[in-house]
Structure formats: structure tokens, C-alpha cells
Specification:
alpha/beta; Rossmann fold; ATP hydrolysis activity; four-stranded antiparallel β-sheet; six-stranded mixed β-sheet; about 290 residues; ATP binding; about 30% helix; binds adenosine-5'-triphosphate; single chain
Length: about 290
């Protein structure tokens, strides 16, 4: 069957005309998009463009003022979120918080837990250990922690791990249930160079898995986008301005507009790289005499 006649994979995520206001600010402005089952989509955009908010809408953590969102065949608002969340693996930046703040910020795991217990909370989609994991579940958690390079930290509380180690533990938690959908929000923040490459390799393994999970990767770093990702979304001021294959979207003009500075994109070793061509702060430096 040719690509033209092959039916499109059923969507893992589909949202239409999603608008979200908070405190009088328009954060998402009528965004629509679709990710087919098993596809990888990278979401790029400047600070404050609305990337995390969009991912939180998909997770049912924030409610849009308008619009319809379907995730893994379920319409948000008409489905039991707890059940749905068990099918989704999430990595975000909010791991090093105490329990009071956990509820307020939507953090995903209680950082006082030891690494194995923290990973096991992924089986129950809870932030803390409210249910006792089985021995098999603890073994699976330990195995994943070894795979992400934390075999020597199994019984350490997350609070006592470095930022990069916490990040790896949270990735293990996200993957422990073999989720159908994985949402990674800046998963390499705080990782050192080998740590980042290790995480990107784990991402490549995930993309090679069968059945292949759907992946939404939110990042600021063009070089982290798998060159063969199905699509790249560019976000600017709460709108999805571009949606297409990497070669089409990762262009000088589109990225310069999205980041508000003149950039040059290159392609090497199967990945895209970006350099700032003109320093947007040069005027400010001149003004302060540096
Ligand atoms: N609860 C809120 N009330 C008011 N404004 C908010 C709220 N949450 C987010 N915002 C604003 O919405 C905008 C988008 O925030 P969001 O965190 O989604 O951006 P982002 O693209 O993920 O940014 P970053 O790259 O810095 O993580 C920002 O300007 C932010 O200040």
C-alpha cells in the first residue's frame, strides 16, 4: 500500500480551537493540532509562548476557556482523568518540591521518596506512595533506573539527588508502565553533556519500540529534535504558527520569528543545529557600556 492510500493512524492527540485565558491574559489563542498514534512531535517556542500550558491542557491539568481536546481516544471533560493518566508518561521540571506545593503546582512526584518508590508511583499515577507496589513492580522500577544510569542510587531520596539524576529518575517513572503516550517537557534541562546524549539515546530507543508510543517532546533546543520526527510545531505568543516535517519547519525565517532573533539553521549527522546570527542584546550591552 502506498503512503497516499494508507489510512492515517488514529490520532493519539487531537485538539481544536483551544483558547485559554488566565488572570486576564490570553495564553492559548485558538490552537488546533493532531498527533497520529506512534508519531513523534517536537514542540518548540520561546519562553512564555505557551508550550507547557498546552501540554497541561492535554493532561487535564488546565482547562481551556474554549475548544475540544481528545487524548488517546478520550474526550477531556467526559472521561475519568485518573484512568487516562495511567496511559500517559510525563516528564516535566517540577520534581524538587515538598508535598504542600505538589498539589498547587501539578508536580508529578514527591521528591522525599527513594528512587525505586518514586518510579513505582508511575504504576498508580500518583504523586506519592499511596499504594504498595508489588515486588515485580519494584524490580521493573530498579531495572529502568539502571538503564538510565541510576543503578547506584536506588535507595536515595530524590531530594538528595542532583538535578540531572532527578531528571533521569523522572524519565524512568514516565516509562515504567510502557505508556501509549509520553509527554516530555524540557527533559534534558539540568543534564550534563553525556547525560543529555544518554537521554536522547533513550528517546531513540523509545521510538524504536514496538508498539511505538506517541511522543510529544517540548524543547528549546533544536539539536534535541530527532531528525526523523514526524512533525515539528512552532509556537509563538499562544498560537501554533507552523506544523510540518522538520525539514520544512526548521528554517531560518520561521525560527528567527519564533525566537525573536536572527538565527541560522544547519543539518548535520541527522540532527538540526542552530546558531544566533546577530546578537539581539548587542544594543543593550552598548547602552550599559560593556
Ligand atoms: N496561571 C497563570 N496565570 C497567568 N499567566 C500564566 C499562568 N500560567 C502561565 N501563564 C503565562 O502564560 C504564558 C505561557 O506560559 P507557559 O509556561 O505555557 O510557556 P512556555 O512556552 O512553556 O515557557 P517556557 O519555555 O519559559 O517554559 C506565560 O507568559 C506565563 O506567564
Amino acid at each position: 500500500m502506498s503512503d497516499a492510500t494508507r489510512p492515517a493512524a488514529p490520532p493519539a492527540i487531537q485538539f481544536e480551537n483551544v483558547t485559554l485565558h488566565r488572570g486576564g491574559t490570553l495564553i492559548l489563542d485558538g490552537v488546533s493540532g493532531r498527533i497520529g498514534g506512534g508519531e513523534t512531535v517536537a514542540l518548540l517556542g520561546a519562553n512564555g509562548s505557551g508550550k507547557t500550558t498546552l501540554s497541561r491542557v492535554m493532561l487535564g491539568q488546565m482547562w481551556p476557556s474554549e475548544g475540544v481536546v481528545h487524548v488517546l481516544g478520550e474526550r477531556l471533560g467526559r472521561t475519568e482523568l485518573r484512568k487516562l493518566r495511567r496511559r500517559i508518561g510525563v516528564v516535566n521540571g517540577a520534581t524538587d518540591l515538598g508535598p504542600g506545593e505538589l498539589r498547587r503546582t501539578g508536580a508529578i512526584v514527591d521528591a522525599r521518596l527513594d528512587a525505586v518508590s518514586a518510579v513505582c508511583t508511575g504504576f498508580f499515577a500518583t504523586v506519592s506512595q499511596f499504594e504498595k507496589p508489588t515486588e515485580e513492580q519494584r524490580d521493573a522500577a530498579a531495572e529502568l533506573l539502571r538503564i538510565v544510569g541510576l543503578g547506584h542510587r536506588l535507595s536515595h531520596p530524590l531530594l538528595k539527588l542532583s538535578t540531572g539524576e532527578q531528571r533521569r529518575a523522572v524519565l524512568a517513572r514516565a516509562l515504567v508502565t510502557k505508556p501509549e503516550l509520553v509527554i516530555l517537557d524540557e527533559p534534558t534541562a539540568g543534564l550534563d553533556l553525556p547525560g543529555r546524549e544518554q537521554l536522547l539515546a533513550a528517546l531513540a530507543d523509545l521510538r524504536a519500540a514496538r508498539p511505538r508510543p506517541t511522543i510529544l517532546l517540548i524543547t528549546h533546543h533544536v539539536e534535541e529534535i530527532p531528525g526523523d520526527a514526524e512533525r515539528v510545531w512552532l509556537m509563538q505568543a499562544g498560537r501554533l504558527t507552523h506544523d510540518g516535517p522538520p525539514a520544512e519547519v526548521l528554517q531560518n525565517d520561521a525560527l528567527s520569528a519564533a525566537f525573536g532573533c536572527d538565527v541560522r539553521v544547519s543539518h548535520d549527522h541527522g540532527r538540526y543545529w542552530v546558531q544566533v546570527a546577530a546578537n539581539p542584546w548587542a544594543g543593550a550591552r552598548a547602552a550599559v557600556g560593556t
